[in-house]
Structures are given as structure tokens and as C-alpha cells.
What we know:
By secondary structure, the chain is mostly helical. It has 22 helices and 5 strands. Strands 2-3-4-1-5 form a 5-stranded parallel sheet, sandwiched between helices. Helix 19 crosses helix 20. The longest helix has 31 residues, at 243-273. The chain starts with a helix and ends with a helix. The relative contact order is 0.17. Mean pLDDT is 87; it is low at 230-237.
Amino acid sequence: MNSQQFLEHYGLAVDPFADEEASTDPIFKGYGITHAFHPDWNKIYGTPTEPTTSVVFGEKGSGKTALRMQMVRKLTEYNGANPDARVFVIPYDDFNPFIDRFREKQPFWRKNIRRALEQWKVWDHIDAILSLGVTQLLDRVLKVKTESHPAAPGLDDLKLEELSPSQVRDLLMLAMYYDQTSGEDRFVRWEKLRKEMKYHNLLARLPLPLGGAVGWTVVMLLLPFLLYGMGMTESWWGFYQSKFFWLAAAAGFITYGAYVGLNWSKAFRIRRGLRTLEQNQGELCKTLRSFPRRALFNQPVPYVEHSEDRYELLTKFQSILKTLGFPGVLVIVDRADEPYQVNGVPERMKALLWPMLDNKLLKHAGIGFKLLLPGELYEFVRREDDDFKLRARLDKQNLVPTFDWTGQALYDLANTRISGSMPPTHTGDAPRLEDFFDDTINENYLVHAFQSLKAPRRLFKFLYNVIGSHTKMYTDSAPNWKISQATFLSVMGNMKE
């Protein structure tokens, strides 16, 4: 006999324990996402009306990805029911592009990934988070269809007319710095945004053409003398000898050159300062030229290596979101062990993530951070000195040091999986897990046995192997529908080796 026959005997349409990855698990996506919650769910999720920070350390297979998907699902439901008080969700779970760009901008003596990550600072995280948030918001404003926006099942009808003139300027400024779209030329997209926001910038375009026009007009007046100098009249010759002529030419070209040079210099410093982002200097220059210089006076610019400008830009982004109906922002950090340059090495993960463990960032008003971190990093936390503990203040961050599951929680999870594996036409109660075993194994026995597994992935692997080992011992003509205690203990022993 085979496993499918065994499961069909109990009325199951699919194997409830075959999938170990939540992101590709149809049972979890269809049934478990709303029925199977970790015991610490309420502490971690908090309340959408007041986004809070939670720091969770969990080993592989403990359900961090499932937790992230459940939070997004709950927030989607909340946003649908509260259109004027939604939560803007920023998924910060793909570090590869940020690490790649950061490493490329390091000098040659710091190209080594370990040395590069040692230079990662809190403002690099803020830049990355702002890029994700700003790009998502611009997609919504410009009605760009994408599947990458969590907790937003459709394009929102944003009330852009409620933005104040200063907020319109701030949105355009943030778009200039942080838009990371790959769908079209960023300056073209910025121009679309400017027109959508009805932001007029005619005065911003005058210095460049005016300076060039004055300079080149004087040159064109000079051409006849250069070509026919000996035949020129005295009046022309007198004009060329006048101070006015040369002052006009100099003023025109100096205006032209200074305007181009200042914008080029500023674009270069911005591009160098945004170490985790990809910026085209030519596009930045064109966008800078499209702003009236007075509009950017005394505004924060992210080319200085310190965090204050970033916090001010983050606050501006929050102000815009609040006006558009998003008073709360939630940043979900996950999969920190997956970047190919980190490759699960604990020391590299620590270098990447530790700058984010800053109480000033984690308690920034109006923003909640859900940090779903690899379990092996908690040992580094325990060994940290008092300076780190004062800076991070993890005691204030809803800390979950071990994202383990109790035996009771795993037993309930297994039964939830069984219920989710029943066919849609099924009526009545689903079988219980103990129904699969002989009379020597009951609910208390299973709860006690599962206590040592601690993680859903281990539970699924164990039960999948138990069913497989059992069915291999019997034929189709002489099936046995009850798993023995001996088989249970044998597979459990193999799991502990």
C-alpha cells in the first residue's frame, strides 16, 4: 500500500504533511493561514491602530514565513474594513539588491563582503526602507499594476488633492531620491508624477536655457567678425571691443556652467550617499534641474553619512501617508539568512542586522517593525555588552527570544492541517490525528512526544515519514489502517539522531 491510499481511507484529498515551506503550501494558504496561529501571535502582531515593534528569533522551519503571511493577510482584512485608517505595509525581505549595490560602492579594499558589511549603518537601512515604501506609493499614485504590494489587494483611490503644497513638493523630492522602479525611465516617471500632482516648475527651467541663450547669442554675434573681420565696419568693431559684450558673454556662460556644475555635483553626492540604492546621475541631474532651487532650500538631502536627514525624510514620508489615509506604517523584516552574499553565516547576518537594532528607529513614532530573525542570532544578543543593550532596548520591543512551539500547539497544528486537507464536498467532522494510530497512542501521548520537535517543519517531516514507513510494511491486498507505537518510536528515534 502507499501513503495516498492510507490518507484516502480517512477521507483526506491531499497529504497534510507533504509541504514544509509556507510560501508554496496550498493547505496553509487556503485554510491554515486563518486557523493555525502561534501561541505568541497576539504579542507579535499587536494592534493595527497602533503599530508596534516585535523582535522574534526563530530557527529555520519554526514558521516565521507563515507568520509574515498571516500578518499581511490580517492587515489586508483590516485595511479593507478601515479605508480611512489603513496600515501601509513595507516588506523588507529581499536584501540581495541592497547588499549588491552597497558592496559595489565600497572602495576596492572593502570589497570583501565581511569588510563591506562592517560599514553598514542604520541610515542604510532607512534608505532601503524608504526606497521600498516610496516606490510602492508611486506605483499606487500612477496606477501601476503590480503584485508586490502587500495588504493592498487593488489600486487605491488616493485623495491626492488633500496633500498640501509642501507635501506635494516632499513627495516629488522623495521620488527623486528613492524611486527604484525598473519599469521605465525614472525621470519620465517623475515627470508623470509631477503632472499628476499639478506641480508647476516653469521657473526652475529658466536658468539653464537663459544662460545658454545669452552666451550663445553673443558668440553668434562674434561669428561675422571672425569670418569677415577685415571688412567689418567700425561700429561692429567697436561693439566687439566694448566691455558690455564680454561681460554679457561671460555672464551667460558662467550662469550656464555654474547651474550645470552645481546640479552635477549635488547629484554625484546624492548618488554616493545612497549606498544601498541604484541611481543614474544623468537622471538625477535632470530631476534636480526640474525643481526650483528655492523649493529645495533647507530640505534634508541624503548625501551626508549620518542618520538625522534620513529620519527627517522618513517623517515627511509618514506625513504624506497620513494625509492619504495611512496613519500607520508597518515594516516586516524577514529572510535575513537568505541573501546569497550572507549565505546563512551568523557573523554576516549580525553585521547586516545589528545597525537596525536601534531604539530610536524601532520606536520611531507611527512605525512598527516586525523583525523575524534567525534563531542563531539570539546567542549574539545574549553576549552583547551594556552599550548595545542601552541602544537596542530589546526589553521594550516585544521580544520573543525563541519562536518555539509547544507540544500542545503542534498537536493542534497537525489537526488543523488534517481539516484543511479534506475535500470541499466533505461534510461532518474531520478525523483526528490519534485516529491514524493504534490504541497505545492517544492525545496525551502525541502532545508529550511533539514537545521535543518544537518546529512545524520538524513535525511535518516526522508525520510524513511515520505514514510512509507504516505503509511500506503492508500490501494493497492486506492493508493496515493503524500505525503502531513501534513505528512511531522508530521514526522519532531517527529524527533525534
